[in-house]
Amino acid sequence: MSINVYSEVKDLKRVLLHRPGLELENMEPDLLEELLFEDIPYLKKAQQEHDYFAEILRTNGVHVEYVTDLLATALSEDEIKKQFVKEYLDLSEVKNQYILKALEEYLLSFDTKGMINKIVSGVRINEFKLKKENFSTKVRMNKQFYLLPLPNLYFQRDPIAFVGKGIVINKMMTKARRRESLFMKYVVKYNKDFEGTPIYYDMNNHFAIEGGDVLVLTDKVLAIGISQRTEPEAVEILAKKLFFETDESFDTILAINIPKKRAYMHLDTIFTMVDNDKFLAHSKLESSLLVYVIKKGEKDLEVIEEKASLEEILQKYMNNGKIKILKCGGEDEIAAKREQWNDGSNVLAIKPGVVIAYDRNYVTNTLLRENGINVIEIPSSELSRGVVVQDVCPCL
After folding, report:
1. How many domains, the chain?
2. Fewer CB within 10 A of the terminal residue: the chain, N end or C end?
3. pTM beyond 0.70
């Protein structure tokens, strides 16, 4: 499979998804903060909404891939499967050797797809008994899970990002999500469809970066958020890799420094591209950011701190004087806050001027239509509790 991502809005051909599963059934209120959720989606309804979304993509000519299916293919050989389990348990920070050995045996007792589903859903303490116990195991078992579930696997855009002809395998900021990147690490390494795909950032790097902060604006320009989840050092490493170690056409990165708080978690939650010359953004975005322009110099990076408005900066570096930014919720301050809370400024473009958006954000959707954007609405009573529309990973 050839990767080819040089725009957020060009005709989308292939995406990577995760269908919500039993990991949601293993969430409970005491775990919400640790697992980075604010509510518990109802699984049956969330799956119905996901399936509707996936079918909309297929109806519009987009091929849907599921990350767990790709991983199952990659783990077809026993030795690779064992290697994956060991690395996964290491990332899970299982410190007790008795528990570590028991988990390894338990996971490998499943067939490959069953093992992957178990890893995603989590392993409860009551699922099996240890062959040997001591003081430390008793203390470690005074909880509900050997392995916590991965409810954030919904957000496929975050652990990985496809940029140009390659892939960015991200070092996730939070412990709750760090294991997710391992899935695509093995897919790229062992799935023949991805053979030869260049890796532009690796999860073993020290500095965190998440895919929701990486937007491909043109074949020359990227926008990357410096956010609660992405560190400036990671942006610098990625910029040097793209500019000086690949044959990619990118020569400019707009590093957008956004507030380090949950409401501005990733760049794509407050700023998305909806057409070649139109963006949708958080109504307060302009007053709360700083933009650094990173250019490819002769031997090193050149950095400029831009003082102009975001609209003017985009017009300048995208070489398009018609760039326009639309505000989530329009001019209605209450609607703007309400719809931003429900990811109103986070939509998915499947072709220029055609986006998929949550139906509940009707003020923003009306504004988009008034500005020539075709909005395809999807139901969102459960998906909007934990999943954002943009969190599919465009790979072609």
Report:
1. 2
2. N
3. yes
